[in-house]
Amino acid sequence: MKKRTVDWSRYGILFAWIALIIVFSLAENSFLSIKNIFNILRQVAIVGICSVGMTFVILTGGMDLSVGSVIGVSAVGGAIMMSSGFPPIIAVSVALIIGMTSGFINAFFINEVGIAPIIMTLGMMTSLRGVAYILCGGYPVYGIPEEFLIIGQGYLNVVPVPVIIMLIVFVVGYFILNKTTFGRSVYGIGGNAEASRLSGVNVKMIIYKIYILAGALYALAGLILLARVNSGQPKAGDGYEMDVITACVLGGISVSGGEGRIGGVIIGVLMMGTLTNGMILMNVPEFWQWVVKGVVLVIAVTIDQVAKKGRVKASTKA
To answer: Rounded to an integer, what distance in angstroms lies between the CA atom of residue 123 and that of residue 112?
Structure first.
């Protein structure tokens, strides 16, 4: 009987996260307090929700830099609607439509015009940030109904509501990717889009669905951020694309597409949250935090590329 071996390389991110926890817990006594643990979970909820949408995008070999701007314009749009007297459900619907529309536009130009995803979403990022400032004149929008704030500030027993929403999004994302034909098509397109097309997969339609889904999740994150800060900030979500992409890559989602699991993304999200929280507790200057996050992203992509070259070399020898 052949002895079963464990591929320990798959658990590298988990070991790195545990090591990070040990380092910060030794450096700062309050790091492992219950209050701080829930604080970390609340902080990562928005990035976590966005990372599910980004996971679908990257798995197809794409990239979406419009994350932060969709968060911002959705938050401002929802805030304007509610401050104008519209019921929260209407405002939420409008914000989600804004996110889905941005995703549709991204997919249209990627599919029909052939613009590279990173260029198209970079343009969308810049444009939507401008739209967010135009909508509110550059000023925060207040007047958010008290009942709406629960999705950003509320608790279910001791668990923050944003964390519950994040967990639901992860579970649904896991089910779609691992238990549906759509999920298998996502992996197939990332592995070889032409082969998927020849096997009968409507590649363009899948791309449309993925970017629309991602836009909706970014907008949902924007609404949670709106409820958390109790105002629609035109700068909301600025820079979030960095944390979201890094969390996905750290979690094992290959930037080349077709490889990775959403379970790893959860660890990637928690690692980014742990890193940020630990540096804040240790009073690391914000500018140095940017440096560290940038280095972490480069290291994660380097490991991904080296691992992929190793697999290609091994398969060639076989």
So the answer is: 16
